[in-house]
Amino acid sequence: MAALLEIENLTRRFGGLLAVDRVSGRVEQGELVGLIGPNGAGKTTLFNLISGFTPPSEGTVRFGGETISGLKPWRVARRGLGRTFQNLRIFPNMTVFDNVSVGAIGAVGHSPWRSLFRGGRGESDAKAVSERTWAALERVGLAGQGHELAANLSYGKRKYLEIARALALGPRLLILDEPAAGLNDSETADLASFIRGLHAEGMTVLLVEHDMTLVMGICQRVMVLASGRKIADGTPEHIRRDPAVLEAYLGGDEEDAA
Ligand SMILES: Nc1ncnc2c1ncn2[C@@H]1O[C@H](COP(=O)(O)OP(=O)(O)OP(=O)(O)O)[C@@H](O)[C@H]1O
């Protein structure tokens, strides 16, 4: 059976810079996979290639057995690929509910606003958007703050707001770009159990993270990028001992791998 996500020889050049260099790999349905690598390794570019935000120079991305490389981000999203961003993309002057409903609208279509003008199917679309949005807010623990402005949420809660927006899409694959960045140790531990919980419910997750404890603690498999190339792909135990990883990612300092 085809993997949920398959990338093949994915390559992206920025002028003379090879940001992602012939990377291949797969994520199976139900997996929780980590993607790590030093600064500038190409992790975010790889995410952008997968989610349609950056077109590949070469190579293909298949999702659910279909080629999605070259599609616009919203088309990729509608096929069931939800993602968050390293730099939070939140509208501070909109309510928490409205921020998340953007994701639900992406899944239901562009028609909820039709109810304002024509009624008919628009009304059921609007109801579906509302239900999806509240369910996503409930799942991340923000339902009680749905009517507040996003600007009033703490930084940690804004992270969950982003995740809720991706969940509202009803994704088959959830891609998280550095969700623990800026969180303290206890917030990171909470995030770890939250991601574990999603995974236990059947969500397939691809996680880019600098926090090694988080990645090694929750991921079943870890892919390592360095200078745009995939240099390792295996269980956390395997990755911890891989000399190429220690050399490239940790600068040969085994202490940091713990
Ligand atoms: N739009 C762009 N134009 C030019 N160069 C870019 C662009 N986006 C990324 N790069 C370059 O591509 C390389 C990979 O960057 P990328 O952000 O994907 O790495 P990363 O592994 O996500 O790094 P970090 O961990 O610091 O976020 C870097 O050298 C970066 O400067």
From TrEMBL:
InterPro entries: AAA+_ATPase, ABC_AA/LPS_Transport, ABC_transporter-like_ATP-bd, BCA_ABC_TP_C, P-loop_NTPase. Residues 5-252 form the ABC transporter domain. It comes from the Bacteria. SMART domains: AAA. GO terms for molecular function: ATP binding. Gene3D superfamilies: P-loop containing nucleotide triphosphate hydrolases. Pfam families: ABC_tran, BCA_ABC_TP_C. Keywords: ATP-binding, Nucleotide-binding, Transport. This is Branched-chain amino acid transport system ATP-binding protein. It comes from Azospirillum rugosum.
